[in-house]
Amino acid sequence: MFKEFKEFISKGNVMDLAVGVIIGAAFGKIVTSLVDDIIMPIIGIILGKIDFSNLKFVITPATATTPEAAVKYGLFIQNVVNFLIMAFVIFLMVKFINKLRKTDAETTEEVAEDVPTKEEILLSEIRDILKNK
């Protein structure tokens, strides 16, 4: 069982996935910082100095014994913007990778067309033999 697990872990796809998850987590932090620290303050200034992180609808105010119950729709807006940026960047990456794969496939097809098959070689030899007789 340990041997099978070792083979599973050492396969390239699993390692690629692990690297992708680690890079994705780091990239997620960068995008979150971009949204929270740069984009949302600019949008807030454009919309009249609104701080989105503090936007909320208070259901019951806080008292000495109970905390405030509120719907924090400002944080939700920030998370939506964060998601849209991440989705757009992933879309661009997938589009770029598909373009590279398509170019590689076309190159492989061109090389395959230039190499004659066994049947073509055999037919060429038969033609040459008949031509010499």
Automatic annotation (TrEMBL):
Pfam families: MscL. Homopentamer. The chain crosses the membrane at residues 12-31, 75-94. HAMAP family: MscL. PANTHER family: LARGE-CONDUCTANCE MECHANOSENSITIVE CHANNEL, MECHANOSENSITIVE CHANNEL MSCL. GO terms for cellular component: plasma membrane. Keywords: Cell membrane, Ion channel, Ion transport, Membrane, Transmembrane, Transmembrane helix, Transport. The keyword Transmembrane helix applies. It is found in: Cell membrane. Its main location: membrane. The keyword Membrane applies. It comes from the Bacteria. GO terms for molecular function: mechanosensitive monoatomic ion channel activity. Channel that opens in response to stretch forces in the membrane lipid bilayer. May participate in the regulation of osmotic pressure changes within the cell. Belongs to the MscL family. InterPro entries: Mechanosensitive_channel_CS, MS_channel, MSC/AndL, MscL_channel. It is a multi-pass membrane protein. This is Large-conductance mechanosensitive channel.
